[in-house]
């Protein structure tokens, strides 16, 4: 598989652990918001700005909480 394709299907920053975030997300049947929290936290130390990725995770978590609070 060409390197370009690997960056799409299996990027290095997701291969740092025993299980890729997508596998964890699918195994736990997480929704969009929760899945993005897992994704951004898992890659935070390995891709670009750790703080930026953690802020993205926080944003998705806060958005999910807000949606749940509105639905009560």
Write out key terms for the chains shown:
72 residues, mainly alpha, 4 helices
Describe this structure in words.
65% of the residues lie in helices and 0% in strands. The longest helix is centred in the C-terminal third of the chain and has 21 residues, at 50-70. Helix 3 packs antiparallel against helix 4. It has one domain. With 72 residues, it is mainly α. The protein has four helices and no strands.
Largest sheet: none
Oligomer: single chain
Helix content: 55-70%
- SSE order: HHHH
Query: What's the rounded overall pLDDT mean?
Result: 87
Overall number of structural domains: 1
Estimate the strand proportion. under 5%
Residue windows where pLDDT falls under 50 for at least 5 positions: none
Rg over CA atoms, rounded to whole Å, is: 14 Å
Shape: globular
Beta-strand segment tally: 0
Task: Give a nutshell description of this structure.
The chain has helices spanning 3-9, 21-27, 32-43, 50-70. The protein is mostly helical and 72 residues long. Helix 2 packs antiparallel against helix 3 and helix 3 runs antiparallel to helix 4 (50-70).
Task: Please outline the helices and strands.
Layout: H1 3-9, H2 21-27, H3 32-43, H4 50-70
Helix pairs in contact: 2-3, 3-4
